[in-house]
Design brief:
Layout lengths: L1 E5 L5 H10 L16 H6 L1 H6 L5 E5 L2 E9 L2 H19 L1 H5 L3 H15 L7 H4 L2 E7 L8 H15 L4 E7 L3 H10 L2 E3 L5 E7 L10
Parallel strand pairs: 4-5
Antiparallel strand pairs: 1-2, 2-3, 3-4, 5-7, 6-7
């Protein structure tokens, strides 16, 4: 029977697999980059390292089939990512970014994104200080787990006085966009190819849905 539970350190490998298998606008991203490990090094593991207490796992009889990770303070997280997390890791893949072909081109784009991350690089963190990433394998989708994960996170963020949360989804992932609309997230002005969403949680920045 599936349930939501807190992250445990031994989950990291399984969650990395979930990350890779859902990274291409919700579809399997294996083989899209020059190294599959780039996906979790950018979008999963830094959250597990910095904020393990804001990580939740969907556990289906001992198998991790989904997760949610969150940085409750985007500004401080992005500065930590830039200074402490990414420099050594990004250097591992520098030659890949210089190679040719579509795989290397996509890799170079992800590496540029990671290298450019810093406090204030995106405007959403000012009004919606927290941000999240959520991924579910196909067998866990359409069963309400995404809503339960976000509801659990919002409860925690409110308890800790966080005034808002945002996320950025691939514009090609139309099912995800509709999902966030249903949850009550507001669509925000976004870069080409992505759609940002924000939700006020009450407190000094607003009085969002409860």
């Amino acid at each position: 029977m599936a349930s939501i539970r807190p992250f445990r350190p031994e989950d990291e490998a399984a969650l990395s697999s979930v990350c890779i298998r859902t990274a291409d606008a919700g579809a399997d991203a294996r083989g899209i980059l020059t190294d599959d490990e780039i996906w979790p090094e950018v979008f999963l593991r830094p959250y597990l390292a910095r904020h393990p207490d804001h990580a939740l796992v969907v556990d289906d009889d001992g198998e991790a089939v989904g997760y949610l990770v969150c940085a409750p303070d985007t500004r401080s997280f992005e500065d930590w990512f830039r200074v402490s997390w990414w420099p050594e890791r990004g250097a591992r893949w520098a030659p890949d970014a210089e190679a040719g072909g579509p795989c290397a081109e996509r890799t170079a784009g992800i590496l540029r994104y990671a290298a450019d991350r810093r406090a204030g690089a995106e405007p959403y963190g000012d009004t919606y200080p927290a941000h999240l990433h959520i991924d579910l394998l196909p067998q866990a989708q359409g069963q309400g787990w995404g809503r339960r994960l976000i509801d659990a996170l919002i409860e925690t963020l409110r308890e800790r006085g966080v005034s808002g949360v945002h996320l950025v989804a691939d514009a090609a992932n139309t099912s995800a966009l509709a999902f966030y609309d249903r949850l009550g997230f507001a669509r925000l002005a976004s870069h080409e190819g992505v759609q940002a969403f924000g939700m006020s949680l009450g407190g000094p920045e607003g009085s969002g849905p409860r």
